[in-house]
Amino acid sequence: MNIWDILSDGFFAALAGVGFGAISDPPLKAFRYIALLAAIGHACRFCLITYAGVDISTGSLIGALLIGFGSLWLGRKVRCPMTVLYIPALLPMIPGKYAYNVVFSQIMFLQNIDSPAQRAIYMDMFFSNSMVSCTVVFMLAAGATLPIFIFPKYAFSLTRDKKIK
Amino acid sequence: MNEEREKIEDIGSFIAEYSAHMMGCGVHTSRVIRSAKRIGVAFGYTVKISVFQKNIILSLADKGTKELYNEVIDIPALPISFEHNARLSALSWETFDKHLSLHDLRSKYDRIVNAPHINPLFVLIWVGIANASFCRLFGGDWHSMGIVFSATLIGMFLRQRMTAAGINHYIIFIVSAFVASLSASTSLIFDTTSEIAIATSVLFLVPGVPLINGVIDIVEGYVLAGFSRLAQAALLIICIAIGLSFTLFLVKDSLI
Predict the structure, then answer these.
(1) In a domain, A163, yes or no
(2) CA A127 to CA A106: how far, in whole Å?
(3) Looking at CB atoms within 10 Å, which of A155, A165, B94, B214 has the fewest?
(4) Tens of pLDDT along A42-76?
(5) Would residue A79 count as lying in a domain?
(6) Are B170 and B235 in contact (CB under 8 A)?
């Protein structure tokens, strides 16, 4: 196990989370927590896949659960709804490489429509990659939303001012 | 509160505007409904609300006087804003806890809605850094990261300019994806991880917020709203794929 690899994975995930989050105009005070959650979630998935041999969709589910519970805890601190923290934090985990392969294999399939052997290879590539992309996106969203179902009262009052209650 | 109770039509039209704005700026459906009902309760009215992709049907009832107020509101197409999401949710709790008057509520709402967005230049640079980091996560080397950074700057700048010019967003996505991936295909000249560079160069366009919101809506039981968000996201992803495939057609011989 290489600590340096894990740290750099977390670091770049944090940069990606903050950067993609910036498109959606998050509150300024939320940025550091988005970075923290993105780093923890992605590094967790990286460790599970690389060292524990877990597949990418289970790894994503566990990473998303971690981000979900983290946003429940940190949301209270900055008075932000959970989604404001966890959506940007989940973005670095979106399986872009697989989605790219879907597009690439689709084009190559259409280009090789006349040769059955090539066509079968690209068809297989298309389905396996779309299967992974769809499952991972669903796991990410469902995993991060689970804490809302477990602690609904707490999750719905994160933006409430504690002092008045 | 009861002595000088606000009129049902004033509260109704405020809640209509409030909930349409929240839906427009990318808040998931159950939160919009909860916040709207909370504001209604704070003023002593029962709110019944039904949310669709393009409009909201709202009805306010006063149990005592049997007064009713109905409204159908169009949801505006606004840029996604988590800042508005967080502050408008907090505003609904503040109204509930502190019993704000409609006048105060309205002025606070206007202040939140009219607050300036993050500087586009700041967003541009950060998106570039984010996409370069993404390239690194997928196993790209430092050269690819540099190429992805500059390709993203070009693509994102184009997207911002075209959005400001009010061009149809499907066309914006196709053109930005094409230009960004074409710029990233310069990596084919160098000895580097060019496939990863081309693949990551368009990822800044992925509509992550509607994708995740769609799944949240579906698992929370707002299946129609969820699927319409996913359908919208899928259309945008297809547009990215079209833009990317123009580039792949041009360079595919060097990729295999």
Answers:
(1) no
(2) 10
(3) A165
(4) 999 999 998 998 999 999 999 999 999 999 888 88
(5) yes
(6) yes
